[in-house]
Amino acid sequence: MKTSICSNLFKYALGLLLIALVWELASLWFHSSLILPRLSEVFAEFFGLIDEASLWMNLSSTFLKAFSGLLLALAIGLPVGFLIGFSAFFSQLLLPGLVLLKSMPIISWLTSILILWGIGWEAPVFIVFVTLLPIIIYNIAQGIKTVDKQLLEVVKLTHLPFRKAFAGIYLPSIIPFIISSIEISVGTMWKTVVAAEFLAGEKGIGVQIAWNKYYVNTPTVFAYTFFVILVGISLEILLDAFFSSPFLKRWRGLWAT
Amino acid sequence: MGNLVLKGVCKNFGRLQVLDGIDLTIAQNHSVALLGPSGCGKTTLIRMIAGLEKPDCGEIEISPGGAAYAFQEPRLIPWKTVKENLTFFLEEPEIDPTFFDTFGLTEILDSYPHQLSGGLRQKVNIGRALLFKKPLLLMDEPFQNIDVKNRVSFIRSITEQRKKEGFTMILVTHNLREALLFSDTLFFFGPKPSRVIGEWTVAKPPQTAFRSFDWLFEEEKKVVARFPEFMI
Question: Residue A150: its chain B contacts at CB < 8 A?
């Protein structure tokens, strides 16, 4: 067991080394830090960045917008997902809107958003919201449709009040779907919020990337990107640890069987 | 007065004709068993009686009050304990503790379904159906995973319960002895498309002889002599 973890780690390290090698070769080929800076330059920038207080201010600003968008999407997405899951009528009525929302490029919102709100926190929050909303709605609706049909027959037979069936059977059945929709959403949320800030933000990591792009500070752009990736991976690891904590695991296990 | 009357009930699944004109009258407080080959539509019939399926023709007249149904599968809620499973569907969640003792459920009340054997889950399933206290109890091969000793004591307890509360019971089974122990009347079904091909009134022994089982073997011999295809 221990050796296999070690050998896995070794393979991961080898994989990272391979990326670094390709990067360095490409960087030597372009021979311009404006196109692709050397890794050493990027890392120097990165360690300079994390020493600055402004980075952490920007990070918290980005976090705030990202999670506001997520909470908003959950607040609207859960009830709408339930509605679609329960009712064939609403499922058909809202499907075109959902497909539209899911396929619409975020930049298409931009003109209207910028006229409405201008540059600021509203646009990134909104863009995170509209990106996550269809994901959450789909997941919840799917969850409702997979509730054990045999249990629902017992519900029907006993004329159980809907309120009781909802709290006792539907809600626990879709908890895994709520968890998985949050897990899927968080990765998407993080990439989206940075892109949205880049396009329409006032402060935040995405704005920093935009400014440095404007001044052709390519090493700094990559240093921020490296930071975004690190935070994104950490978020997913933290979330995974939270959802597989003993308490939640117990409930998840019970719900899954 | 019939508690339950079926007139020319038939059912198709697509082009497959399962039941072809079932006529049955089951008197109030009677206990009947439906016997027949696998897949002959017995389950479909009691699902129609329960209102879970609609017949394609014919009529089902059922006196008001509804039906309780012990399904073939336990159908327990995985995230609720045995006790919660027993009470969840009830309007009045208070249960007489002697009920748990009678049906051997006391020791598992705090267990979750996944911690129980198939037989124990099945016991909870039957217990839950009995607690609904409906005028009609439908049971679909409920004893499949329960061992013989427990099976007999369960049948005794349910029979006593039925005498106390007076409900009509329909049991779907493959097991002739089980059917004889439980029922006043047996109905035999033929292969698909199925009809009722025979009826047998069980000669129940006086109470004192009930424990000896001699009557059961005698009765079984007589039934098998008349319906040889149902020998098990």
Answer: 71, 73, 75
Locate the domains of chain B by residue range: 4-72+134-230
* Domain B4-72+134-230 is found in CATH 3.40.50.300: yes
Q: What is the ipTM of this complex?
A: 0.88
Instruction: For chain A, give every domain's residue range.
Output: 1-31, 37-256
Q: pLDDT for A121-171, tens place per residue?
A: 999 999 999 999 999 999 999 999 999 999 999 999 999 999 999 999 999
For the A37-256 domain, the top CATH level (class) is mainly alpha
Instruction: Say which residue the tokens 């006032």 belong to.
Output: A202
The verdict on a CB contact (< 8 Å) between A151 and B77 is yes
Whole-number pLDDT of residue B208:
56
Q: Where are the alpha helices (DSSP H) in chain B?
A: 42-50, 82-88, 97-102, 118-131, 148-165, 176-182, 214-226
Interface of B with A in 112-151 (CB under 8 A): 112, 114, 132
Alpha-carbon separation of residue B201 from A29, B75, B224, B225 (angstroms):
96, 33, 13, 14
Q: What is the pTM of this model?
A: 0.81
Q: Does A216 touch chain B (CB under 8 A)?
A: no
Decide if B71 and A168 are in contact by the 8 Å CB cutoff.
Answer: no
